[in-house]
Amino acid sequence: MKTLLITGALVFSFSFTFSQKIKESEVPKTVTDAFNANFSGVKAKSWEKEKDGTYEADFDLNKIENSATFKADGTLIETETEIAIGELPKAVSDYLTKNYNGKKIKEAEKIVDAEGNVKYEVEIDNKDLLFDQQGNFIK
User: Fold this and answer.
1) Helix, strand or coil for residue 123?
2) What is the pTM of this model?
């Protein structure tokens, strides 16, 4: 029983070390202004403050789930857009077929950083797999 309580406490504490949901009123004005400038007319569904001091907004754009991460000064770091599995590069699909054959893909996202570099993230078996723009496995 003691082990179960300790494990529960650790899981609970770790859930707050990576990010924490916050109210929009707790987001710096520089960040909300930057969000509004980059995504005019879009309303954030939720905000999170990351452990590293960045802020992430979750929102829908054209009925597609998106998120955007900003530094506290309002600098856009990256955007993530949910994509259909069929939109993944062939190299990603080939990698998944070879290494995760028969496993269900929970989610696929296209990540674009501030410099325009593209990566793909696939969630499978409760793991996030990261690929570069050409579909090469990163981690």
Assistant:
1) strand
2) 0.81
